[in-house]
Amino acid sequence: MSRRAKGALEAEVLAALWAADAPMTPDEARTTIDGDLAYTTVQTILVRLHDKGAVTRMPRGRGYAYAPVLDESDLVARRMRQLLDNEDDRASVLSRFVSELRPTDEAALRRALRHRS
């Protein structure tokens, strides 16, 4: 059995929540993702996502049901910001990032910056 890449299980759990019409219990999410996962594994992932503010939870039965707070774009933007926050030379990182953008991405970034101001 091969190990998942770091963050892959979180991504799978979030994808299941995004696809669902209603909040899901850990068991419902487990069944949607991979019935061979342990209930406690999925529950741990959901608790971690809750601690990160990516999901909300509400009581259901003796446990909780979880729903996404962030959509996929929000989550990727948050990860990008967290990576940038860990850098001492933010200007250099941003400069390198922008220099490697595709023209369409650069145009989208320019539009976003114009709308922000």
Describe what this molecule looks like in 3D.
The structure is a single chain. Strand 1 (55-60) and strand 2 form a beta hairpin. The model has no long low-confidence stretch (mean pLDDT 90). By secondary structure, this protein is mostly helical. The radius of gyration is 18 Å and the shape is elongated. 61% of the residues lie in helices and 10% in strands. The protein has 2 domains: 8-68, Orthogonal Bundle (Arc Repressor Mutant, subunit A); 72-116. Helix 1 crosses helix 2 and helix 2 (26-33) packs across helix 3 (39-51).
The poorly predicted ranges are none
Q: Would you give the CATH topology of the largest domain?
A: Arc Repressor Mutant, subunit A
Largest sheet: 2 strands, antiparallel
* Alpha-beta content class: mainly alpha
Tell me the name of the CATH homologous superfamily of the largest domain: Winged helix-like DNA-binding domain superfamily/Winged helix DNA-binding domain
Q: What is the general shape?
A: elongated
Number of helices: 6
Termini separation comes to: 50 Å
Number of strands: 2
- Using only C-alpha atoms, the radius of gyration works out to 18 Å
Mean pLDDT: 90
For the largest sheet, list the strands in their spatial order: 1-2
CATH architectural grouping of the largest domain: Orthogonal Bundle
